[in-house]
Amino acid sequence: MDPKASSDMNDNDNDPTPRDNGDNKHGTRCAGEVAASAYNTYCGVGVAYNASIGGVRMLDGAVSDAVEAAALSLNPGHVDIYSASWGPEDDGQTVDGPGPLATRAFISGIVKGRGGKGSIFVWASGNGGMHTDSCNCDGYTNSVYTLSISSATQAGLKPWYLEECSSTIATTYSSGILGRDRTVVTVDMDPQLRPEKLCTTDHTGTSASAPLAAGMCALALEANPNLTWRDLQHIVVMAANPRPLLRESGWVSNGAKRRVSHKFGYGLMDGEAMVTLAEQWTVVPPQHICETPIIAIDRPINKSYGSELTLKTNVSGCEGQENEVHYLEHVQCKVSLSFFPRGNLKLILVSPSGTPSTLLALRPKDEVSATLNDWPFLSVHYWGEDPRGEWTLKIYNNGRKKADTDGKLT
Ligand SMILES: [Ca+2]
Ligand SMILES: [Ca+2]
Ligand SMILES: [Ca+2]
After folding, report:
1. Which residues pair with 83 in a beta bridge?
2. Which of 169, 313, 373, 380 has a CA positioned 20 to 30 A from the CA of residue 135?
3. How far apart are the CA of 94 and the centre of ligand 2, in A?
């Protein structure tokens, strides 16, 4: 346990030991997956047992933008990887993300963390599958700066809690159907330190997947500490293995001939493949950001069921300029619109290579709100593609709920 990677934002002290109310074991369980010591006689071993680990107590009290920002920027010269298994409500009707301070914490971590190589933020993609939630409506996991991690059952299938979206980069195993599929073995919290209560065989959900990913990222950094935050994302993409997960539908081959899925990203993370790649990795050139001209012409979104609105735009990839993009990593599509109910809408972006990516899937429970305000939908599905050519955005009104008035794409 590393005090320099620890803090208690709820009680404003240095000791993050949880308050024992029977419910505050989540962080301890996640920590055990990453760094439980080798050769211990209690539970399984942590993925990265040479890593030191700290805890940030922040969710056992009022959570503000400032608290989140402080947690995400804790000692960024010392902490390499931040693993987060929390976020907005998974109720299938929320569109919410980091506030201004947390956003600055992410950017500051990317720019200044790890001596300028960039902090690694690993994020659970969310457990709202039962409420048809979309992880692209969660601004933390939908962020370019986070590695968003999904879950697969031990059989390589989609678990009931999984949220599908285009910002998920890869997957690790976790729980599935209770009683049939296994759950994750890890350290548990017992304030009395009773040996028979120090372990659990019941850690579940994408919360249990993100720490496994964080552990594998730690192994890659152990093999090669020079990796930047983008190198690590490249390594995750290249080392991910779709084969164990191919029984699930929805895989497409993108323009770089890499299979990708809205359920699992590029596939099951493979620690050995990541370490092998890390050992021989050449650091990628600086990130180029190319913005296409904003299309700011209002267009109606027809209220009738099955209506469809198509926009096309030609993209140069800033060819010939200093910020020319030779191959794609993250694609953000910022959308402002109003339509009620918002959950009726499905947004699909198609790249010049013909790769379709669902930016927003139908969310039947999202029938309380009507607007998206410059929401930066992220797709990682175009990784390695040439940006140049015609991009198509399609907006479908395919929800079952009746819309009374036309909406508007702005
Ligand atoms: Ca404390
Ligand atoms: Ca969610
Ligand atoms: Ca992300």
Report:
1. 122
2. 313
3. 8
Select 299-409's CATH number: 3.20.20.100, 1.10.10.10, 3.40.50.1000, 2.60.120.260.
2.60.120.260
366 C-alpha to ligand 3 centroid (Å): 22
Query: Closest ligand to 143 CA?
Result: 3
One of 3.20.20.480, 3.40.50.200, 3.40.50.300, 3.40.50.1820 is the CATH number of 3-279, namely 3.40.50.200
**Sheet of strand 371-379, all strands in order from the earlier edge strand to the far edge:** 299-301, 407-409, 331-338, 371-379
CA of 1 to the centre of ligand 1 (A): 15
In the DSSP assignment, the letter for residue 320 is: T
How big is the chain, counted in residues? 410
Distance 4 CA to ligand 2 centre (A): 31
CB 176 within 8 A of CB 157: yes
Ligand closest to 17 (CA) is 1
Q: 404 C-alpha vs ligand 3 centroid, how far in Å?
A: 35
* Nearest ligand, CA 236: 3
